[in-house]
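User: I've been going back and forth on whether these two constructs are worth ordering. Before I decide, could you fold them both?

Assistant: Sure. I'll take them in the order you sent them. The first construct and its structure tokens:
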Amino acid sequence: MSKMDNLRAMREARYARANAKPAPTSSTPKQVAPVAPVVAASDPAPIPASHPAPDGDARCGHRSMNGRTCTREAGHAAKSHRYS
């Protein structure tokens, strides 16, 4: 067999294993654990800024996906944010 024939045989075996139907183990349905209801917090805790604004200097406060906050002034006209 060539290298390509070996690769093809391995690929077909992997495909057959992935698509094989498992044998039924029992005729009774599985028991599903009850799911607890989600309770919303009535007063969420404020998220502290990583760099607080110095002496009344209002900041944008936009949060990035990794949790950093924007340090530009509030209501800035720039399209981009400066995170720190």
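The second construct, handled the same way:
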Amino acid sequence: MRHVHIIRLVTLACLLISLGALLAVGRVGSADAHPLSTTAVLLTVADDEVTGEIQLPIDRLAIAVGHDLDAASVLQRAELERLRTYVSDHVSARSANGGDWAVVVAGGTVADIDDVDHLVYTLTMAPATGVVTDFTLHYDAIVEELVSHRIFVSERTAGATAYTSLGGLSWSQKSLRVPAGGASASTGFGSSVRLGIDHISGGADHLMFLLMLLLPAPLIASRARWVRSADTKRSWWRVVHVVTAFAIGHSITLALASFGLVEVPTRFVESMIALSILVSGVHAIRPLVPGGESWIAGGFGLMHGLAFAALIDDLGLGRGSLVANLLGFN
């Protein structure tokens, strides 16, 4: 029975952590509470050059450069120039034949993107030949210092309004190929599959929530050793039900919010995610709904899906790309 006591201690520890998270969300601003402060690189490809913008979350940028930043301080002339130089040093482009492109990072404004302050620079990249062909984009600002950071790259051709997802950059992958003719909707599918895996495996909120709901299964299984093997199998089927219910709930609101059919304030979503971990922890110790782990997982999965939907919406994807990304992600 020693392992049973260990499981209960883990449950108690997660309860305390989730309670602290719930209280923290109520104290801090929404920018601090948001778990998806990501960089977006939006590219527009013309015949002779590639233009676009880079959206950097100021809270993550502060970590990368090693000193405090806010929406006001980044706009001070000296700071704006220093940060522009920092970004310029971390972005480059190269043609398939190895020729380096001229890259210019300019401007500098602050934009509120999904309740998070971002520093936005314009980007211009031009090949020496004067003709844009397929090229490799290298970008590692912030992510070189913050391994958990993610960078999303989208592309559109000149004259188009909607973007198509090209993929994501991270600490382990800092370059990607950009097609001169524009990306197809299926291009983002593979990257979205990888993003979905990273999202669930690296999302502490998801893992803690599911852990709390899954803890009763090994407890039941340990008691079932002295009963029937059928009882043990039934307890492990509960694991499948819980994970599936969570995935369904997560997918529903992710799709609805991404298509603009549902909009919920970030602060509320973050509070509900912290609450979901707390409720699932209490349920693991003393069931609130006996045998109802799947219902809890599905219900709170709706909230977890909303947390990620805003990010996809901010990428400005067209409907075809959006559908491909949602399918790949789910």
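Notes on the second construct follow. Confidence is low (pLDDT under 50) at residues 21-35. The first strand starts at residue 39 and ends at 45.
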